[in-house]
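Supplementary Note 2. Why include the ligand at all?

Several targets in our set were suspected to adopt different conformations when bound, so apo predictions alone were not considered sufficient. For every target with a known small-molecule partner we therefore ran a joint prediction. The input for zinc ion is given below.
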Amino acid sequence: MSDLRLMAVHAHPDDESSKGAATMARYAASGNPVRVVTCTGGERGDILNPRLAEDPHILADLPDYRRKEMAAAASALGIEQVWLGFVDSGLPEGDPLPPLPEGCFALQPLETTVGALVRQIREFRPHVMTCYNELGGYPHPDHIMVHKVSMAAYEAAADPEAYPEAGEPWAVQKLYYDVSFSADRIRALHEAMDSRGLVSPFAEWLDGRPGRPERVPTARISCADYFPQRDDALRAHATQIDPDGFFFMVPRDIEAEVWPYEEFEVARSRIPAEAGEGLEQDLFAGVVPEGLDVTALVEYGSGPERPAGEDSA
Ligand SMILES: [Zn+2]
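The joint prediction is reproduced in token form.
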């Protein structure tokens, strides 16, 4: 048992199950409180499971359906989940791209969205938080906004002057980006399938890869024992995840043998990195259980990009 707390900020219901899910299940199983904050209700998601695409019950109230799916996924992972209460911005498609829908998450003033997340942080008091990198990990306006809001809330939650109505200040000690889809992982799975005479789904993905900047993970969490929970959580999002689709293409025994991890990249840290070579094996490595004094914070290593406040639009 441990009282160290992990908070993961995600854009839509289902993102938590495809990014870092087995890591969360692992910590939850060891008694760590784990809470997912889902920024939007996923109102503009398409039904991606062909078996359910025409289901009249689902079409009648997709947001309600997705709330039930989310509850089932959280229970599969053994975690808590809360909604931040904003509306899905949708993925704009077309040339030129259409404007974002009025009132959506990505168009909210930062003061509103950051304030809402600061309140969550000060209430749950996570030692470690995860979010997406500055590219969103995936170019959806809500994912990019999750990055901006999380970076700003990491700063503001610890600042006694900021959002005084949102609770007592709390300093998250480390903030990580999810690195679920690293080229190393995809390559390892591709080669493992190839060498066993199986058709790899990743050939095209890898062809499109050269020249793209790669993320550099700094933490690698062994969590293959929790892949079954991750898969249950993915399947719980029945409207969003096709059980014959992308997430289930790699045979699970191969995955557990070749890539039994999930990876993260440290973006901010208020504690010194532990001495030693190589990747961290625990997101809580080095954290101070009783919390940090918010009047004496020091920032240690940070990612390559600029602080959130300087991000260009
Ligand atoms: Zn998403």
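The first strand starts at residue 6 and ends at 10. The radius of gyration is 19 Å. Comparable summaries for the other entries are listed in the accompanying table.
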